[in-house]
Amino acid sequence: MPRRFAATDLHGCLRTFRYLVEQELRLRPTDTLYLLGDYVNKGPDSGGVLEYIMQLQGFGYQVHCLRGNHEQELLDARYGHGDEPWRTPAERAMTLASFGVTQLADLPARYIGWLAALPLQLELPDFVLVHAGFDFGLPVADMRRDTYSMLYTKSFVFDPSRLAGKRLLHGHVPTPVAQVQAKVAARAGAIGLDTGCAYRHNPELRHLTALNLDTWQLHLVENREAPYPIAKR
How is 120-165 classified by DSSP, letter by letter? Predict the structure, then answer.
């Protein structure tokens, strides 16, 4: 029987993501994997993560991806939009090196085009998927067009009536594993699946999490990357 999974906030952790897909989930072409954004930055191999996702899609795997704020920031920096500097110097160098370049202008066009085409939300029969969340205080039509909230909000008051009674799955805010497990056990209306995989120094985080959308089983893989520079959160 086909299975459905959702995961988020890979942040350049290619070894961990590959282990999740190939060993933990044993993903099949008949399954569907939804990824809720933030594939780049923080971790050691952003380019490798994008390449692996694109390879899976090319081999016929049903992998559907959303855009996260880190993809948006990379695109904004690439095209000179925004006033904020893109990442710290060390993180910027690590991310660019993973693509085999030293400056943003040289990022391969195939990756930039793929990132630029990513949607901000996906609607399933039973779930709405978004990277960060929604501003549930807005009228429904405006809420679903509010780009900033979909990419960046860190708190919201969930209102299932605004999503036609569907549950919300999101990422963006690193959350201790125990808290995510409790939300899933309660089958909460809104569940954040970001367990801070990239934060390898934080024992309460440092996991990549996938949720089976039909059985509600959580799959947890601890960070498997070689050491890389990142501060404790």
Answer: SEEE-SSEEEESS---TTS-HHHHTT-HHHHHH-------GGGGTT
3-state secondary structure of 65: strand
Q: Which two tokens stand for residue 17?
A: 């993501």
Taking only the tens place, the pLDDT of each residue in 145-176 is 999 999 999 999 999 999 999 999 999 999 99
**Amino acid letter for position 226:** A
List pLDDT tens digits, range 32-91: 999 999 999 999 999 999 999 999 999 999 999 999 999 999 999 999 886 667 888 889
Q: What is the pLDDT of residues 131-147, one digit of tens each?
A: 999 999 999 999 999 99
The token pair that represents 28 in the structure block: 């099949």
Which residue segments constitute the domains of the chain, with CATH numbers given? 4-120+175-222 (3.60.21.10)
| DSSP-derived 3-state class of residue 89 | helix
Distance CA 109, CA 147 (A): 24
Q: Which helix (H) or strand (E) holds 46?
A: helix 46-58
Using a 10 angstrom Cβ sphere, with 0-12 exposed, 13-18 middle and 19 or more buried, the burial of residue 67 is buried
> Does the global pTM surpass 0.90?
yes
Contact assessment for residue 64 and residue 33, using Cβ atoms and an 8 Å cutoff: yes
